[in-house]
Amino acid sequence: MVTAFKTYARDNGGRVSLLFLLFLLALYEFITAGFPAFAVVCLIPVLVLLVLAAFHFRMFTFWTLIVINYFVQWKNFPSTGLPMSLYNEMLEIILIALAIIDVKEAKFERLGNIMLFTLMIWCGFCTLQVLNDTCNIGLDIGAWYTGARLMAFQIMYAFIVYTLYITNPKILIQYLFVWGGLALFASFWVWKQKNFGFTDLENAWIQGRGRSTHIIQGGSLIRYFSIYSDAANFGIGIASTAVAFIIFAITSKINKYRIFFGITGLATAWAMFPSGTRTAMACMMAGFMAYIFLSKSFKIAIPFTIAFVFFVFILAFTKIGDGNQSIHRMRTAFDKNDASAGARSINQETMKKYLKDAPWGIGIAQGYGSVPANNKYTLMSTIPADSEYVYIWIRTGVIGITLFLILTAIMLIGACWIVMFRLQSPSLRGIGAGFCCAFVALQLGGYGNQVLMQFPNCLTFYGGLTIVYILPYIENEWIEYEKRQLAIQEEKKRLKLEKKRASRV
Question: Helices (H) and strands (E) in the chain — how many of each?
Fold first, then answer.
């Protein structure tokens, strides 16, 4: 038997020896640690196979990331006990590792831009936050890393992955269609929730944790959340998506793309209303206002401005559609005496008093309720942040929020500069403008709600801004690609016309 094993091992290299050692390790773990450890060891070959498959099918891994990012907070997503952010992080690290392994094919030179510079500064600042012990309760590296990867590192991962994997016009168009398809599903699902009710898991959440914020006005109004974590995240995310796709539809020259983008834009614009998120409406308006500036065209700016003013006038100065509860709730965004806005102002005034003595914040490592009850900053760890900016302000202080706003402005201005002055193709400028305006919409949402770093928003919109920095590299290919598509479109149009003429004879 030993001789046979040696012969087999010699003929098949070290693979059989490695598998035999894994088998012995699995038996040892089963005897000493029980079935869970045994199962983990048994899964090692499967994980190796998955990594090898990812290497051969890298774009499939990329599309898997995009899809999982959209569904990871869906209440019906299968629960595995893993942190939700871990799915994205594992796939992103695998994709970056695969690009490094295949370094000859990777476009690493495209990483060198203003956005990388700003993200390096922000990630560096959040790394230094590991030393922040304002609360005098000691350093917790594990808790710090959890907070830092959600607040900073996930943006860097998104930037690197999008830069390395969206490399040509074909992949860009595929990405827009995948994103649009996911957004359409989210719009369909909110329609399904509104007309056919929630699933058991969704109903359990809204009757429990989400009841106080999602069943309002004495139970007469339900705020729907589709496949997102909550209604605010959904409303702002889907409104920002609507901004992007409406701009894509307006600027696209290819009919089939224009139709798909237009349908997606209108569907997502409608889906904003069932969320009952008042900030979402302001986000959409801010995104379109940004496009008036980026378009550099009176033909676009004038009708957009007229439509914008008309829309605001109807909501702010009339009662049109007030019988619809969702529209009525959106209209309260113009109410200066709104109780919700007043409560936020009171909370923020309280925060200012505490944070005067904490210019670096209470620390990224401090989660909800992690500060002891007898500590000066206990209230700061439990008070509702209500917005992403306020959350960053509490954790990193006035220094952190100031730095974040400056760096965000720099990366946005850099992207807008590319759209306005570096791109020559009108349709490619439209794609760049759509991403920039969607990013503006989301950032305004971050002022009113805690949505910037939520799934799927962070990867989708910071990744979208990353694409703008890629566009100059693929513009020549895009022009040729668009010419071919337009030629096919014209040929189909000619054949259709000839067929129509022939039928008349």
Answer: 23, 2
For 139-165, write each residue's pLDDT tens digit. 778 788 888 888 899 999 999 999 999
Q: What is the 3-state secondary structure (H, E, C) of 315-333?
A: HHHCCCCCCCHHHHHHHHH
Residues pairing with 216 in the sheet = 221
Which amino acid belongs to residue 211?
Answer: R
CB 292 within 8 A of CB 304: yes
Q: Which residues pair with 215 in a beta bridge?
A: 222
Please count the residues of the chain: 505
- Determine the Cα angle at 436 with ends 431 and 442, to 5°: 125
Distance CA 227, CA 73 (A): 7
In whole angstroms, give the CA distance from residue 389 to residue 375.
Answer: 24
Phi, psi of 138 (to 5 degrees): 90, 165
- Select from 172, 421, 220 the least CA-distant residue to 324: 220
What's the distance, CA 89 to chain centroid? 13
Cα–Cα distance for residue pair 119/127, rounded to 1 Å: 12
Please say whether the beta carbons of 292 and 305 come within 8 A. yes
Pairwise CA distance, residues 231 & 210, whole Å: 9
Nearest to 121 by CA among 355, 402, 453, 385: 402
Q: pLDDT per residue over 256-288, tens digit each? A: 999 999 999 999 999 998 888 878 888 888 898
Contact between 404 and 452 under an 8 Å Cβ cutoff? The reply is no
pLDDT of residue 176: 96
Q: C-alpha angle 378/231/401, rounded to 5°?
A: 45
DSSP output for 271-297? HTGGGT-HHHHHHHHHHHHHHHHHS--
388-417 and 463-504 helices, crossing angle to 10°: 60
The answer, as to whether pTM is greater than 0.70, is yes
Q: Which residue has the tokens 């893993």?
A: 82
CA 179 – CA 173 distance, rounded (Å): 10
Tokens describing residue 327: 């529209």
